[in-house]
Structure formats: C-alpha cells, structure tokens
Amino acid sequence: MIQQTLRRCATTLLFMPLPALAGLLVTDLAGTVEVEGRGRVQLMAELPDGAALTLAPGARVVAVDLGSGREYTLKPGRYVVGKSGPTAAGGGKVEGSALPASHLPAVRIATGKVAQATLVMRSARKMVHAAVSPNNTTVLGRMPALRWPETADAGAYRVTVKDANGKQVFEAVVPPASTFVLPAEAGLQPGSRYAWRVEAQREGRALAEHGGEFAVLGALEASRLAQFKPGDNADFSRRALYAALLMEAGVGEEARTLWQALRAQRPDDPALAKLAD
After folding, report:
1. 112 and 21 co-located in one domain
2. How far apart are CA 219 and CA 7, in angstroms?
3. Which residues does 180 contact at the CB level (< 8 Å), separation at least 6?
4. Strand, coil or helix: what is 9?
5. What is the per-residue pLDDT across 29-72, written as a single tens digit (0 to 9) for each?
6. Which long-range CB contacts under 8 A does 35-43 form with residues at least 24 apart?
7. What is the Cα–Cα distance from 24 to 94, expressed in whole angstroms?
8. Domain count, the chain
9. Which positions ≥6 away from 83 have C-beta within 8 Å?
10. Same domain as 115, residue 61
11. Are residues 95 and 155 in the same domain?
C-alpha cells in the first residue's frame, strides 16, 4: 500500500511544472554544437538556463524548453539559454512553436557524461529488458502483450494475472506461442499494479514457468502522454521527445523500442546507442 501511494505521488509530480529545472532539452542536432567552457553537446542533453552555446557552420539544433513547452530550431551562431527561451547573440529573439503542454517534466536520461558539469544527464530508472516482459515496468494500455521464452514440447500455456492484493483477475489456457495479449475482460485498471505468470504445460504436466510484474499508467498521465504521441510521419525530434517522456514516466520497454528505431536511423550516435541498449 505504501509503495502504491509513493508511486501515485511520484507520477503526479512527474507532470507538474518544475520551473527550477527549466532549460532546453536537445531533441535533434546535426554538426558541431558546443556549450562555451563545457564541451560538445550530444543528443538528449539538457541545457540549463544561462548556458551559452555555439553552433558551428552547417550545424542545427532542435530543442524543447522544459519550462514553457515551446520548441526551437537553432541555426549556426551563438545563443544563450534563458527563462523565456534561447536568444541569439546581440539579444535577438528566437521564435518557437508551441507544443501540446505548457510545461514538461524535467527529463532525466542516463546516457553517461555529456560534456561537463551541467551537461551531465541525470540518472534515470534503470530499464529492464529481457525475454520476459513486461517486468518491473509500467505499461501504457490496459491490454499489454505478455512475452516469454518458448518451451520445447509445450502443448499449451496457462496464463494467470493477479492484482496487488493477490486476487486473481484473469486466467486462460492458450495455444503454444511466446506472446499473448491480455484481453479487455481482464479488467486491468489505470494506476494499478499486477503480477503475471505463464506455465508451460504438456498433457497436464508443468514444464516451465515465467512471469513478471507491471503497473498500468494512470489515466491522467496516459492522457498527457497521448498529446505527444507522434504520427507516422513525425520528424525525428518529436519522436525523440516522446521516447524521453515515456522513459521518464517509467514506460521503459516502449521507450526502448522507440530508441532502437531512432538508433537505426543514426547508428553512429553515442547517446542513442546507450538509450537503445
């Protein structure tokens, strides 16, 4: 009960305005970009207010202001990050475009050291990815796909789901496979935690067992995330922002899938390599 309460509080705080942590989140870049006195910027770096950055000829940055929720595109030149967004050398204002929300959560992404000092990305939840999923993660919808290693000679699999109080909410015997999508009648509830198990069977005899635990994202948080879900033709920066927000909300496995797709586009990007692992 205490863990559930703490999680609800943490998830609520996740989507509250955090002005003290405002800055620019770099969601796309090309070429050489440096913060003066601190070093080169990588993709998904968070630049704090007061940071002065220089874009070399041919460079380009797309960044989101975490305080205002506006997106900016920067071209070669020198800029200073401020509370009202970036300004160009000489005080020229950079026009931005509005995103669905006026405030975004401060994104904490573990990609190692990016330049120095304030450009070191803060540690995030460790993502768990294995043959068994979902496990130790949060899922977006109420009908998640359960995945497990196939067992040789299994004639069927018995799938069970229990709520946080140990009450069984779903049971079914399914044909041999390594994936099963929980149906709506399982009755999973937003904001609730569940444990699931799958037992490989052969003629009524148990051969192997796998399982995990997961939480269903709360309705409010899911609604907020849905505003940022990119369309099929969305550009790189919007997909990177959505992956970061998924990761910050604890939806690690879905975030990792998006990071892997982005890495496929840019296999040499060191930040994406760490996020996709």
Report:
1. yes
2. 14
3. 145, 146, 157, 159, 172, 174, 198
4. helix
5. 999 999 998 899 999 998 999 999 999 999 999 999 988 889 99
6. 35/115, 35/119, 38/115, 38/116, 38/117, 38/118, 38/119, 39/115, 39/116, 39/119, 40/115, 41/114, 41/115, 41/119, 42/111, 42/114, 42/115, 42/269, 42/270, 42/271, 43/240, 43/269, 43/271, 43/272
7. 13
8. 2
9. 22, 49, 67
10. yes
11. no
Residue 221 maps to a domain: no
Task: Look at the block and give the residue holding tokens 């930040």.
Answer: 271
> At residue 13, what is the residue type?
L
Residue 249, exposed/middle/buried by CB under 10 A (0-12, 13-18, 19+)? Answer: buried
Of the residues 200, 216, 232, the one at which a domain ends:
216
Q: Does residue 256 belong to any structural domain of this protein?
A: no
**For residues 114 and 204, what is the distance between their CA atoms, to the nearest angstrom?**
55
Residues 156 and 198 in one domain: yes
- CATH number, domain with residue 147: 2.60.40.10
Residue 254 lies inside a defined structural domain of this protein: no
Q: For the packed helices 219-228 and 2-14, what is the interaxial angle rounded to 10 degrees?
A: 30
How many residues are there in the chain?
277
23-30 vs 145-147, strand pairing mode? unpaired
Question: In the 8-state DSSP scheme, what is residue 136?
Answer: S
Residue 136 lies in a domain: no
Helix (H) or strand (E) holding 210, with range, is strand 205-216
DSSP state of 184: G
pTM: 0.80
> How would you write the pLDDT of the chain (277 residues) with one tens digit per residue?
434 433 443 333 333 333 344 589 999 999 999 999 889 999 999 899 999 999 999 999 999 998 888 999 999 999 999 988 999 988 788 999 998 877 777 776 644 333 332 323 333 333 334 589 999 999 999 999 999 999 999 999 999 999 999 999 999 999 998 999 999 999 999 999 999 999 999 988 999 999 999 999 999 999 989 999 999 899 999 999 999 999 989 999 999 999 999 999 999 999 999 998 8
